[in-house]
Structures are given as C-alpha cells and as structure tokens.
From TrEMBL:
<comment type="similarity">
    <text>Belongs to the binding-protein-dependent transport system permease family.</text>
</comment>
<keyword id="KW-0812">Transmembrane</keyword>
<feature type="transmembrane region" description="Helical">
    <location>
        <begin position="193"/>
        <end position="215"/>
    </location>
</feature>
<feature type="transmembrane region" description="Helical">
    <location>
        <begin position="89"/>
        <end position="109"/>
    </location>
</feature>
<feature type="domain" description="ABC transmembrane type-1">
    <location>
        <begin position="85"/>
        <end position="274"/>
    </location>
</feature>
<dbReference type="InterPro" id="IPR000515">
    <property type="entry name" value="MetI-like"/>
</dbReference>
<protein>
    <submittedName>
        <fullName>Aldouronate transport system permease protein</fullName>
    </submittedName>
</protein>
<keyword id="KW-0472">Membrane</keyword>
<feature type="transmembrane region" description="Helical">
    <location>
        <begin position="121"/>
        <end position="140"/>
    </location>
</feature>
<feature type="transmembrane region" description="Helical">
    <location>
        <begin position="152"/>
        <end position="172"/>
    </location>
</feature>
<keyword id="KW-1003">Cell membrane</keyword>
<keyword id="KW-1133">Transmembrane helix</keyword>
<keyword id="KW-0813">Transport</keyword>
<feature type="transmembrane region" description="Helical">
    <location>
        <begin position="270"/>
        <end position="287"/>
    </location>
</feature>
<dbReference type="Pfam" id="PF00528">
    <property type="entry name" value="BPD_transp_1"/>
</dbReference>
<feature type="transmembrane region" description="Helical">
    <location>
        <begin position="21"/>
        <end position="45"/>
    </location>
</feature>
<dbReference type="InterPro" id="IPR035906">
    <property type="entry name" value="MetI-like_sf"/>
</dbReference>
C-alpha cells in the first residue's frame, strides 16, 4: 500500500506551461472548426429560408429565416439537375472501377523488386507530376482518339493519378514478400496474387483510393467544360457552375415574375450547392475508419 501511495504522489503532473498549451490548442482548434463548418451551416440554413426574408437579411445566419422548401422543389423540377446527377454517377462509378483496376495493376508491377528498370520507370512516372504538355496538346490528343463530346473524355484521361499510384505502390511494398513466394510455390500467377492476396490485405489503402478518386470525379467540371458540347452530357458540377455564374437560376423558376425570380434565385443557388455536396459528404463516414490507416500505410516506406 505504501508503495502504491508513493507511486501516486510521485506521478508526473503536467506543468502550468503544458496545461496552458493544451487549453490554448483546444481553443484554437475549436475556433478553426467553427470557422470551417460555418459556411456549410450558412448555406444549409439559407437554402431552407424564405426567399423574401433572406433577401432582406444581412449578417450572420444561425437558423433558417422562416422555413421553405420551394428552392429544393425548383431544383428537382429542373430536368438538367436530374440529368446531371445521372451523368455524374456514371462518371464516378465507371471511373472508380477503371481507376482502382489500372492503378492497382500499375502499383503491383512497380512494387515487384524483380521488375527490370523499375527506378527508371518510376522516374518517368514522377516526372509527369511536375510537367505536362499543356492544355492544347491534351485537348488535341483527346479529340484525335475520338473521345471529344463523350463522357469517356473525362474518365479515360484520368484513369491513373500519379500520386495515388505511388501511394498504392508503397502500400503494396509493405506486404511481406513471403506471402507472394508461398503463393507462387502453390502455383499462383501474378493475377491471382494481386486479386486474391495483395488487394484483400490492402483494403485501407483501397478505401483511400476510392475517396480520392471519387471526390475528384464528383467535383470535376473543368475538363467537362472543355470536352463536352452536348448539354445533356453535362455532369452535375458543370450545371451548378452555370447556375452560380451565368444566371441560369432564372430558367428553374418557371413562369414566375421578375421580382419572384430575383428572390427565389438567392435560395436556389444555396439549395443547388447542398444538393451537389451532400451525397459525397455522406460517403466519407463509411471510409473514415480506413482513411488515416490507409494514408499512413501508403505514405511510410520501411
């Protein structure tokens, strides 16, 4: 008992400076969190507000001004929004399959120590992270292979991201070589090793790849703007850009008067932002438990 009492009394207590740092750090991070989250809260409340009250209000918004779903009704009544959702889901789903397949194939090959000229190949791959031919040669290449004005123009050219390839390659290198050797003794070829051993053991980094590639596809609008001329092929983010920057909100208000259009446009923009953002936000909680682990596995070599 005496030893336990002495151990408790001799326990190292945080100094005043350490406690001050911890409190200061907690306060700073709390303020940073509020500053980061508030724009999302503002947009959500504004989208649910009454248009006339929102137009007359200025300042910080802590709750919806009135309550109205008219903006959301107008958003989903617009056929371009629904079409944009369909195009975006197609790009995300097909793009993810292509991304994971090609990136894992490339990462597996580059992670094998038996691959000849592996360092030289990696040097050329890393070179593409810092230098490119430019937008005009890129456009001419995509047009030359017949992908212009198709959804494949925003999927195939971005099938492999160099950073993601390096991340996955590093994760594959962390898997013990003994697993591959034992599989080869049992007669397994490289495809069996990759799809039945390497990938099942690399689910954290696969989850990170799904998040990285998925967010990239969901938020993509620039290349769609360049390569797509048919408006029925526009992804959701490009339609959102039109609404926010080109005053397309007026086309979503039906036969409303000019005054009603001006008021409803204020809430329509916020409602469209929420509609375009919420789906990708809902995916993250399911991948969160893999995210940190997968990023660290792919970032640390040794």
């Amino acid at each position: 008992m005496e030893l336990k009492m002495k151990a408790k009394t001799n326990a190292i207590r945080p100094s005043i400076g350490e406690r001050s740092f911890d409190w200061s750090n907690a306060v700073f991070l709390t303020i940073l969190m509020i500053v980061t989250i508030y724009p999302i809260i503002y947009v959500a409340f504004a989208s649910l507000s009454d248009a006339s009250q929102l137009m007359a209000y200025s300042g910080v918004l802590w709750k919806p001004l009135g309550f109205s779903l008219e903006a959301y009704k107008s958003v989903f009544a617009n056929p371009m929004i629904i079409k944009g959702y369909g195009n975006t889901f197609f790009v995300v789903l097909v793009g993810l399959v292509l991304n994971i397949l090609l990136t894992s194939l490339g990462a597996y090959a580059l992670s094998r120590k038996s691959l000849q000229y592996r360092k030289q190949i990696m040097l050329f791959i890393v070179f593409t992270m810092f230098f490119s031919g430019g937008l005009i040669p890129f456009y001419l290449t995509v047009k030359g292979v017949g992908l212009n004005n198709t959804l494949w123009a925003i999927i195939i050219p971005h099938a492999i991201n160099t950073f993601n390839l390096i991340l996955m390659k590093t994760a594959f290198e962390a898997i013990p070589d003994a697993l591959e050797e034992s599989a080869k003794i049992d007669g397994a070829n490289d495809f069996v090793i990759l799809f039945r051993i390497i990938l099942p053991l690399s689910m954290p980094v696969i989850a990170v790849m799904l998040l990285y590639y998925g967010v990239s596809h969901w938020n993509s609008w620039f290349h769609a703007m360049i390569f797509l001329q048919d408006r029925t092929l526009y992804p959701l983010q490009l339609i959102l850009r039109e609404i926010l920057l080109q005053g397309e909100a007026s086309s979503m208000t039906g036969g409303a008067s000019a005054g009603d259009v001006a008021m409803l446009s204020a809430t329509l923009k916020y409602a469209t932002i929420i509609v375009a953002t919420v789906p990708i936000l809902l995916v993250y909680p399911f991948l969160q438990k893999y995210f940190v682990k997968g990023a660290l596995i792919g970032a640390i070599k040794g």
